[in-house]
């Protein structure tokens, strides 16, 4: 009995060891034309099958002679164990066979796709990068200061005129602007200068806004609208519960002084809701607000245009706050004024429109902007970094490359906001000493690699929402700090063609990095910088 079992085990082991795919060679494929090899393998298989049948016959004869139940159970145990071992080895063998990744992938038309280039292997020269930053970005430092000063003065004047044309009893109340973006964070990269302003507004008294954020458990907002919120226009005491006349019969000869103009107030409330809210709801409509804002800005400019010696024009009718200032000298300044609603008493704002955002078609879901906290975070982290640290130059270089790649291959969903988010993640994760100015090439590769990996994984988390690494000094509101992290790429992944275009854009940008840096770096000759730039630089 034991001898038969031993012979079965030997046959099984021999079959496994002689299997041609157990220990595959470098080339694991069998040429179809090798008939001799196939013939030998077939003969070997037939011999194994014959030996297996012979052993089965011997075992069958042995079983008839066994009268002890214990021996019968032992046979079933050993045969089952051999079968389990056989299948285990087969499964493990399939796992250890290597799978080759082709160097290029052909599409349906037979064309090979572009070769993948890792951002970690991008050729960067420290001297070239240093000269590139000195000649491309340093001249903007003093000019940006003058532009900011001019824009702040003009914006104050424009908003004051806007307040004068609004009806204080029925129109929205315009508050002071907040400067955001590269111009106000000191990492401007190109011409013409672009200034981004948030202009908060509030409802007229006695109305107020009620907020329903995506992270509020009592609010139902679709998953693809994470980071958004609704704004409800309400009037406190509108149901009459704050006055006795709502619950007491005062008689025909009694008049409530608080509600003597009840009908006119109801009419005014109805008019305001129709002006600002989506139809048949009390939720603030982005389209209605933008329409009101465009009309108000046009009226305000009409009042103060005689004071300025330049032209002001709307750049994009879909985004009425996108303005262009053109001076007689031909110079221009781009000014983006975005209406917003301040979230309670915080520095968070619900934004009506992001010009680069195409993933939120809902008219009542407003995008939460935490740019003020991001600006404060960048400023806070910079205090711990070495003198002349390279973090700003990393952000400027990648933003510059993105702008030039957009000019070459067209617009995509990839934006400077994604670049800044990636940089902030790196600043939070790396030691301050790693941002020495001489480490610019290494940190630049890190930033490109972080973005590349995020695109591959289809995951780039918002740097403020639900991030435990944010210092307490930034004073992020608890509801934002404790919320689930938001994947900025999630809405884009749902639009496959949009995301594919963004991946292609970034991969081309990585491939062109060295070339673009070399092309836009002036050459040094006898210690002087050559200032002749290519014609593309003037765009």
Description of the molecule:
By secondary structure, the protein is an alpha+beta fold. Helices cover 45% and strands 11% of the residues. The chain contains 15 helices and 12 strands. The strands form 2 sheets. Strands 1, 2, 3, 4, 5, 6, 7, 8, 9 and 10 form a 10-stranded mixed sheet that branches. It has a two-stranded antiparallel sheet with strand order 11-12. β6 and β7 (322-327) form a beta hairpin.
Number of strands: 12
Helix content: 40-55%
Please state the average pLDDT score. 78
The run of helices and strands is HHHHHEEHEEEHHEEEEEHHHHHHHEE
Q: How many strands, what sense, and barrel or not for the largest sheet? A: 10 strands, mixed
Distance between the termini: 90 Å
Structural class: alpha+beta
Q: How much β-strand is present in the residues?
A: 5-15%
From the spread of the alpha carbons, the general shape counts as extended
- Structure annotation, total helices: 15
What are the segments in which pLDDT stays under 50 over at least 5 consecutive residues?
Answer: 20-34, 91-114, 525-539
GO cellular component, one term: plasma membrane
Protein name: Inositol 1,4,5-trisphosphate receptor-interacting protein
Keywords: Cell membrane, Coiled coil, Glycoprotein, Membrane, Nucleus, Receptor, Signal, Transmembrane, Transmembrane helix
Membrane topology: Single-pass type I membrane protein
List descriptors:
539 residues, ten-stranded mixed beta sheet, 15 helices, 12 strands, 11% strand, receptor, transmembrane helix, coiled coil, cell membrane
């Amino acid at each position: 009995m034991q001898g038969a079992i031993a012979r079965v085990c030997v046959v099984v082991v021999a079959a496994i060891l002689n299997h041609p795919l157990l220990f595959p060679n470098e080339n694991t494929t069998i040429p179809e034309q090798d008939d001799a090899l196939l013939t030998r393998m077939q003969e070997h298989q037939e011999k194994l099958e014959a030996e297996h049948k012979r052993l089965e016959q011997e075992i069958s004869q042995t079983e008839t002679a066994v009268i002890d139940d214990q021996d019968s159970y032992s046979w079933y145990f050993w045969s089952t164990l051999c079968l389990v071992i056989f299948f285990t080895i087969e499964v493990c063998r399939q796992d250890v066979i290597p799978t080759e990744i082709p160097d290029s992938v052909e599409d349906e038309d037979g064309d090979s796709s572009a070769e993948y280039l890792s951002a970690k292997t991008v050729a960067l020269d420290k001297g070239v990068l240093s000269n590139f930053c000195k000649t491309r970005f340093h001249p903007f430092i003093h000019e940006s200061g003058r532009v900011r000063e001019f824009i702040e003065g003009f914006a104050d004047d424009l908003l004051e005129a806007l307040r004068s044309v609004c009806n204080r009893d029925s129109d929205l109340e315009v508050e002071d602007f907040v400067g955001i973006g590269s111009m106000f964070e000191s990492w401007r990269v190109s011409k013409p200068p672009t200034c981004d302003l948030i202009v908060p507004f509030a409802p007229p008294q006695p109305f107020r806004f009620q907020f329903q954020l995506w992270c509020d458990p009592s609010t139902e907002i679709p998953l693809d609208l994470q980071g958004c919120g609704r704004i409800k226009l309400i009037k406190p005491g509108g149901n009459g519960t704050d006055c006795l006349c709502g619950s007491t019969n005062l008689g025909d000869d009694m008049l409530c002084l608080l509600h003597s103009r009840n009908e006119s107030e109801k009419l005014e409330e109805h008019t305001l809701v129709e002006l600002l809210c989506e139809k048949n709801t009390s939720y603030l409509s982005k389209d209605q607000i933008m329409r009101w804002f465009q009309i108000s800005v046009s009226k305000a400019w009409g009042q103060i245009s005689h004071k300025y010696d330049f032209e002001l024009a709307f750049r994009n009718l879909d985004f009425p706050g996108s303005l262009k200032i053109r001076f007689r000298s031909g110079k221009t300044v781009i000014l983006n004024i975005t209406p917003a609603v301040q979230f309670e008493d915080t520095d968070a704002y619900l934004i009506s429109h992001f010009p680069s955002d195409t993933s939120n078609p809902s008219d009542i879901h407003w995008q939460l902007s935490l740019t003020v906290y991001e600006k404060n975070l960048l400023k806070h982290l910079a205090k711990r970094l070495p003198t002349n640290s390279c973090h700003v130059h990393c952000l400027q270089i990648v933003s510059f490359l993105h702008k030039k790649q957009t000019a070459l291959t067209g617009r995509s969903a990839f934006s400077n906001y994604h670049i800044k988010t990636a940089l902030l993640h790196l600043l939070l994760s790396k030691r301050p000493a790693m941002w020495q100015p001489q480490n610019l090439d290494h940190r630049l590769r890190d930033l490109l690699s972080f973005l590349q990996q995020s695109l591959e994984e289809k995951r780039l988390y918002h740097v403020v929402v639900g991030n435990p690494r944010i210092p307490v000094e930034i004073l992020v509101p608890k509801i934002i700090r404790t919320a689930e992290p938001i994947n900025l790429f999630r809405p884009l992944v749902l639009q496959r063609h949009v995301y594919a275009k963004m991946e292609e854009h970034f991969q081309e940008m990585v491939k062109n990095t060295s070339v673009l840096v070399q092309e836009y770096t002036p050459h040094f000759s006898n210690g002087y910088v050559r200032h002749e730039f290519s014609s593309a630089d003037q765009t």
